[in-house]
Automatic annotation (TrEMBL):
Main location per the UniProt record: endoplasmic reticulum
BP-aspect Gene Ontology terms: protein maturation
Membrane topology: Multi-pass membrane protein
Domain (Lipase maturation factor 1/2 N-terminal): residue spans on this chain: 123-281
Region (Disordered): 659-710
Ranges annotated as biased composition (Basic and acidic residues): 664-680, 692-710
Protein's recorded name: Lipase maturation factor
Species for this entry: Cyprinus carpio
Recorded family membership: Belongs to the lipase maturation factor family.
Keywords: Endoplasmic reticulum, Glycoprotein, Membrane, Transmembrane, Transmembrane helix
Subcellular location field: Endoplasmic reticulum membrane
Length: 710
């Protein structure tokens, strides 16, 4: 693989931007999730017995030393994360290994605080933690002040290995779990309405013919299983580019139909590992002049080029062959339709997985060894003994760290169905257990959620004052009102909606967070109400909290204009399934028992916080953000960044046009003459026109002399 300076910078820039979005999204939701009046107050999760600082799993323990309450400590961590991320986005010198180490430590602290509350346990959080670890290895260390970075391809290779594990495991889990929707290829139709936050475009895509949606399911499986196997580690550059554009197209489709989540942005960021500098410089390189012939290639070079082309064509034909044979693609020319169904069962797929998953590990070992040896040879070829030794030392440290991360990643990678973890060396398993709490590597595709054909289950909260008239409390970012247009969430991650979506899928009504949600809504706490609705006009109990609350479970479906003649104005149609949570009030024994079991029954009143200058600053910032939705805050932040980059581009263009153009070879600037020469010239008599013509003829004859031509 060629140089990776530009893709590496794109990766670091994108990771910093994702950190900004993640920290800002959490910061907006802290009062409702972790605050003293929130669903699960973080002060109740702080251990009563203080442990040594080095044994702490979160930076929350530093709050008392700063004179901050636990909630404000979380806010400070998020603001520091936003500030460091913005600095890395705007200034290239700040894309340093130490900056990414601080970002990783801050996000890991938030993750560890959320283990009991399940707020930050999504696949995006696990992936961001592992990508953050890789950013620490990929980013330069400013303290070294070294221009020799021949080990960059080695550390950057880990991002390609992570991208492969993520993509391959995601695709494999769909079939290894035995999900019938993927085996009969109807999954895409159900996925469009079952995903976390479907968009308006998802409704229109859902109206496409059934055969076209089944073909889309085949494309998804091919893109996530076959394409990574044959392109991600291919030695042919064009195959890697093919894999990159396939994955980019797939993620763009997910974004358009399921909102732009940080998980999609992380996948696109990791896909930069398939690129190299030649891809970026191919269009900006110097153009050859007309008439300039290419250098003739030798016979060996031409043979290698033809063989490479044949191998590339063979890979494309293999992808097409597997596309047709594995899914029995048949075209009906008369009806102008296409039929497809899988030609294998779950047992056959598990047999395939048992062989190929172990093979992918050895392919990863060979690919990593190639990158490490190539980087070492480049270090050996460095001029100067001191530079050579220094670059070799850096190469040894980075290669050892990369090899350790690669070995640790094999443990969760083999946790999928089809391969036993016992095949991994015991020393590697022990090392993984020792560092598992630091989230250095993650497991993907293990807990695949089966796609239900019965529709999208949704929890609908209802409140009442008298127990006779009930009013729904519809959230902002997920289906509730069947007439409401599917919302645009953007990179904001609404944690409460995600938990409710997960709870509806699993049918669990005894989670501590759900009990705390019911309690705070009965109390009318504005911090929790803003998680559901920022606009008071959209919340029916903004003036007075409800006396009673219950929860129902409905199955939602996208409407079909061809079938649902009575729902022409609706985006959704729903069907009552069951009661999810019984009718309760604040004094209900059932609610109090659940609160006590969850540790949310407070025996002592909340103590007033300290009034330090830092606390006052944090309160001032919170006051400006209060009442704003998370999507609005992130949209404003991203728009500000876009404006800054636009201004920088305009200034760079304007200043670039004002610079003097370099003189060409035919019009070199004349050297200023000495004062003595100017005096002699003024004293000399003016030459005649005839003499001038004669001198010019002599000059031409001189130019034609053999010495001059030579």
């Amino acid at each position: 693989m060629g140089e990776v300076k530009t893709p590496r910078q794109w990766f670091l820039w994108s990771i910093a931007l994702i950190y900004v979005c993640a920290f800002a999204s959490i910061y907006v939701q802290i009062p409702g999730l972790y605050g003293d009046e929130g669903i699960l107050p973080v002060r109740l999760q702080v251990p009563k017995v203080q442990r040594p600082l080095l044994e702490q799993e979160s930076l929350l323990c530093l709050g008392p030393y700063l004179g901050l309450e636990p909630q404000q400590t979380l806010e400070l961590m998020c603001l520091l994360g936003v500030a460091l991320g913005l600095g890395a986005v705007l200034l290239e010198p700040l894309r340093d290994s130490l900056i990414y180490l601080c970002l990783q430590a801050l996000y890991l602290s938030l993750y560890n605080v959320s283990i009991m509350s399940f707020y930050l346990l999504s696949a995006m959080d696990v992936l961001l933690l592992e990508a953050g670890v890789l950013a620490v290895l990929v980013a330069p260390l400013g303290l070294l002040h070294s221009s020799y970075r021949y080990h960059d391809p080695v550390s950057f290779w880990l991002t390609r290995w992570l991208f492969f594990r993520l993509t391959f495991c995601t695709g494999v889990s769909k079939l290894a779990s035995g999900d019938p929707a993927w085996y009969d290829l109807s999954a895409l139709s159900h996925h469009l309405e079952n995903q976390m936050s479907p968009t308006l475009l998802a409704w229109y895509v859902h109206q496409l013919p059934d055969w076209l949606l089944r073909l889309g399911a085949v494309v998804v499986l091919q893109s996530e299983i076959i394409v990574p196997l044959v392109t991600f580690f291919a030695p042919i550059r064009r195959l890697r580019l093919f894999g990159f554009y396939v994955q980019l197209f797939l993620q763009l489709c997910y974004i358009l139909t399921g909102n732009c989540s940080l998980l999609n942005l992380l996948r696109i960021t990791l896909s930069f590992s398939l690129l190299d500098d030649d891809h970026f410089n191919s269009n900006s390189g110097p153009k050859k002049k007309k008439g300039q012939d290419k250098k003739p290639r030798s016979y060996g070079q031409a043979l290698v080029s033809y063989l490479t082309l044949l191998v590339e064509l063979a890979v494309y034909l293999f992808i097409l062959y597997s596309f047709i044979t594995l899914f029995k693609i048949q075209i009906n020319w008369e009806e102008k339709t296409l039929s497809s169904k899988t030609s294998f069962n779950q047992n056959g797929f598990n047999a395939f997985l048992e062989v190929f998953q172990e093979l992918t590990i050895w392919i990863g070992v060979l690919s990593f060894t190639w990158e490490a040896v190539s980087a070492m040879l480049n270090c050996v070829c460095t001029r100067g003994i001191a530079s050579k030794l220094w670059s070799l030392l850096q190469w040894a440290v980075i290669t050892a760290a990369a090899a350790a991360v690669f070995a640790l990643s094999v443990v969760p990678y083999t946790s999928m169905a089809g391969m036993s973890v016992s095949k991994v060396l015991p020393a590697v398993r022990d090392a993984y257990s020792a560092v598992e709490r630091y989230q250095l590597v993650g497991a993907y595709g293990i807990q695949h959620r089966l796609i239900s054909a019965e529709g999208r289950p949704e929890i609908i909260l209802e409140g009442s004052y008298d127990g006779l008239t009930w009013t729904e409390m519809n959230p902002m970012y997920k289906p509730g009102n069947v007439n409401a247009v599917p919302p645009i969430v953007g990179p904001h991650q609404p944690r409460l909606e995600w938990l409710m979506w997960q709870a509806a899928q699993g049918g669990d009504d005894t989670s501590p967070w759900f009990t705390g949600l019911i309690q705070r809504l009965l109390q009318g706490k504005p911090e929790v109400v803003r998680l559901l609705q920022v606009d008071e006009a959209q919340y029916p109990f903004s003036q007075r909290p409800p006396a009673l609350i219950k929860a129902k479970l409905y199955n939602y479906h996208f409407t079909d204009p061809a079938k649902d003649k009575t729902h022409l104005q609706n985006w959704w149609r729903r069907q009552y399934k069951k009661e999810f949570f019984p009718i309760v009030n604040l004094d209900d024994p059932t609610l109090n028992k659940l609160l006590e079991e969850s540790g949310l029954k407070e025996k002592f009143p909340v103590q007033p916080g300290s009034d330090t200058p830092l606390s006052q600053v944090l309160s001032l910032i919170r006051g400006h953000v209060k009442g704003l939705s998370g999507s609005l805050v992130l949209s404003t932040l991203l728009a500000t960044l876009a404006g800054i980059f636009l201004i920088k581009a305009i200034l760079s263009w304007a200043l670039g046009n004002r610079k003097p153009r370099p003189a060409s070879a035919d019009h070199k600037p004349k050297k200023p003459k000495e004062p003595s020469e100017m005096a002699e010239k003024s004293q000399a008599p003016a030459t005649s026109n005839r003499g001038s013509k004669k001198d010019s003829n002599e000059k031409k004859d001189t130019d034609r002399s053999p010495r001059k031509r030579k």
